[in-house]
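Re: that backbone. Tokens:
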């Protein structure tokens, strides 16, 4: 039985972009919200501070190198890098992946997870879009403004070709993850016009074969909607796999919105659900665990917090998920996340736990 490899979900933020400057203010990155976060109740650990105050800049190649070498040292096989492509005319937060591509000597595998969605401001009533920053960084100026920041537009074959051509240098990288000589490409929101996604994937398959591959290995995030490709991956926490789970999380969210109270969840209970669902997963579904969660830096009192977590609990639960993955002969398992500081989900060392979570990863890998 081969060892399952651990992929840490990776946020390619934390560097200045013209769009962030225009939308949220000069120099805004996720660090802005992380630094400004305040404790909202007794015992609330905020703000989260990276070890040695290392508020890195991911437009700097040395920062990418430091991350990749640290991940490799502690047994992380690769990064699952979020990919923000809105249309053939707009892509965002691409710099970190491009810097990784340039540094061929870095011993880290990787793949892309396309977070195919529309971005909006918090006050926008546009359905099916996501907000990307706290309301304190924005103002509604024009009453005619829809609040759309970046609109998802799949386009047609011409646009799909432009997208594929951008991806091709990454696909050709020996470190880019492939299954049966097919680059793995993940869709985070398969339910958003899956009919078009399927057509795009079929076209990319042809282009990949022309480029010397056996096609593209498309995987989609599993969910209660049951829409997507045959091959799937899971994301945790808070992604429902059944309608009952969906209604549970939705009701908690609605109560939070009405009462202006934080949504609280228990670490053990959330992981126990993951484990039970993992045991029932099919051979084509890659599993996922999480480090912790607290997105109050982004959402304030409307945030979600998973309480009672610790490095030791992470070891106990995530090691069980790894065992299930291995018993089901799955090649990879995801963990949320390498660096989601604005969501309190990170393996990187901080001022409180130091390297403890990375040490648990290394312990799990050494015990495989």
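Recovered sequence:
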């Amino acid at each position: 039985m081969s060892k399952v490899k651990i992929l840490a979900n990776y946020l390619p933020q934390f560097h200045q972009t013209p769009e962030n400057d225009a939308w949220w203010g000069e120099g805004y990155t996720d660090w802005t919200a992380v630094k400004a976060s305040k404790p909202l109740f007794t015992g609330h650990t905020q703000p989260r501070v990276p070890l040695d105050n290392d508020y890195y800049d991911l437009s700097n190649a040395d920062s990418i190198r430091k991350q990749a070498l640290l991940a490799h040292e502690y047994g992380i096989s690769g990064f699952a890098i979020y990919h923000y492509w809105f249309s053939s005319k707009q892509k965002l937060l691409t710099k970190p992946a491009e810097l990784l591509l340039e540094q061929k000597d870095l011993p880290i595998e990787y793949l892309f997870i396309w977070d195919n969605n529309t971005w909006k401001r918090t006050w926008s009533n546009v359905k099916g879009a996501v907000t990307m920053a706290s309301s304190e960084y924005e103002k509604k100026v024009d009453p005619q403004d829809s609040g759309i920041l970046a609109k998802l537009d799949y386009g047609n074959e011409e646009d799909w070709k432009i997208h594929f051509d951008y991806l091709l240098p990454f696909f050709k990288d020996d470190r880019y993850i492939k299954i049966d000589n097919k680059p793995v490409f993940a869709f985070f929101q398969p339910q958003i016009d899956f009919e078009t996604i399927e057509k795009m994937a079929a076209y990319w398959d042809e282009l990949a074969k022309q480029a010397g591959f056996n096609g593209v290995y498309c995987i989609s995030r599993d969910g209660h909607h049951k829409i997507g490709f045959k091959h799937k991956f899971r994301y945790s926490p808070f992604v429902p796999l059944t309608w009952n789970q969906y209604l549970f999380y939705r009701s908690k969210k609605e109560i939070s919105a009405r009462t202006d109270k934080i949504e609280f969840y228990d670490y053990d209970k959330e992981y126990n659900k993951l484990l039970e669902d993992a045991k029932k997963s099919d051979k084509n579904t890659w599993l996922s665990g999480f480090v912790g969660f607290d997105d109050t830096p982004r959402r304030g009192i409307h945030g979600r917090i998973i309480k009672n977590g610790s490095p030791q609990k992470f070891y106990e639960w995530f090691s069980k998920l790894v065992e299930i993955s291995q018993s089901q002969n799955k090649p990879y398992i995801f963990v949320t996340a390498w660096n989601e500081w604005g969501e309190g989900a990170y393996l990187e060392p901080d001022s409180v736990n130091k390297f403890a979570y990375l040490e648990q990863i290394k312990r799990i890998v050494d015990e495989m």
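The mean pLDDT is 93. The domain at 5-117+152-367 is CATH 3.20.20.80 (TIM Barrel).
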